[in-house]
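Sample pair:
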Amino acid sequence: MKLWILCKYNNSRNPNEDDLVINCGICKGMDTLNSIKVILEEYCDEIEDIVYPECNILKNVLNKKY
């Protein structure tokens, strides 16, 4: 299964039905990091790949946190 982190405002990808999806809104002040953390804790053994959007804001925040 894949974990898709999709931009809530610029989403052009179509994940499979069985994949997990988080709609990122970090650029608009939404708390996306807690959602990512909870999903990773809950499904870490089942997630084979993580697909991130091309977003410098998200990349910078994740680099600082992890």
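The CA atoms of residues 6 and 12 lie 9 Å apart.
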